[in-house]
Design brief:
α2 links the parallel β2 and β3. The radius of gyration is 17 Å and the shape is globular. 45% of the residues are buried. The chain is 44% helix and 15% strand. α1 crosses α8. The protein has a seven-stranded parallel beta sheet, with helices on both faces. The protein is α/β, with parallel strands linked by helices.
């Protein structure tokens, strides 16, 4: 095990696990002793993730917008490991970058289905497991976009605001039952999603990076470090909160 916070003996369930942040979080948690259950959409190539973590990883294809599919991935995790100690509720999509008057309703609904329904359904089926255990840590993925407005981002921004609301409701519902629910709010992070948003906005990483006080985009592993801390027993009194990892970007708002 590498130096750092121990997650030994914990089972970590991660959605959006094959994406940039999901992969780095799964790898870090595995290094710190956690057993990984990786969930991503049907057709996902889990090969790179399996190569990093090893044969002990359980990979599951699932549609996070489907209640049946979410129930099934939770059931599979429980069948394999008998418990879920950490839930990184991370699956999300960006949608198009268009002004509201040009934003297709179909795309708006699609973004909400993944980013909000997916988070809600994950909570609906994982929280009872953790309540029965009397312990557990949930980390939802929001974004700095959930803290402010941005032109062309009606679907993504509003969905990430909703994730913060879900986090707070869930946290107060389960706080007395030994379960914690927090969320992370990454800023611009090197990833396929960020490339897509830059392209949609007609922007470049170089130009946008200058608007971040740190002067650069973040790395997926920098988000992973925060998630792993919130998942750990070193964060047992942190509940119902959101945590930016954005190079100081939100401080300028």
């Amino acid at each position: 095990m590498t130096d750092g916070i121990s997650l030994a003996g914990k089972v970590a369930l991660i959605t959006g696990a094959a994406g940039a942040i999901g992969t780095e979080t799964a790898a870090l948690m595995a290094q710190r002793g956690a057993t990984i259950v990786a969930v991503d959409r049907p057709g996902t190539d889990f090969g790179p993730l399996e190569a990093r973590i090893g044969a002990e990883i359980l990979t599951i294809e699932a549609d996070v917008t489907s209640e049946e599919s979410v129930r099934a991935y939770v059931d599979k995790a429980m069948w394999k490991h008998g418990r879920i100690d950490i839930f990184f509720n991370n699956a999300g999509i960006e949608g198009p970058v268009k002004p509201i008057q040009d934003y297709p309703l179909e795309d708006f609904h699609k973004v909400f289905a993944v980013n909000v329904d997916g988070v809600f359904l994950g909570l609906k089926y994982v929280l009872p497991v953790m309540i029965a255990q009397g312990s557990g840590s949930v980390i939802n993925s929001s974004s700095v976009a959930g803290l402010s407005g941005a032109p062309g981002m009606a679907g993504y921004n509003s969905s990430k605001h909703a994730v913060i609301g879900l986090t707070r409701v869930a946290a107060v519902e389960v706080a007395a039952k030994g379960v914690r629910v927090n969320c992370v709010n990454p800023g611009p992070i090197h990833s396929r999603m960020m490339d897509s948003l830059d392209e949609g906005a007609g922007a470049t990483e170089e130009a946008r990076g200058k608007g971040v006080p740190a002067g650069r985009y973040g790395k997926p592993e920098e988000v992973a470090g925060l998630v792993a801390f919130l998942a750990s027993d070193d964060a047992t009194y942190i509940n119902g909160s959101f945590h930016t990892v954005d190079g100081g970007l939100d401080a300028t708002a």
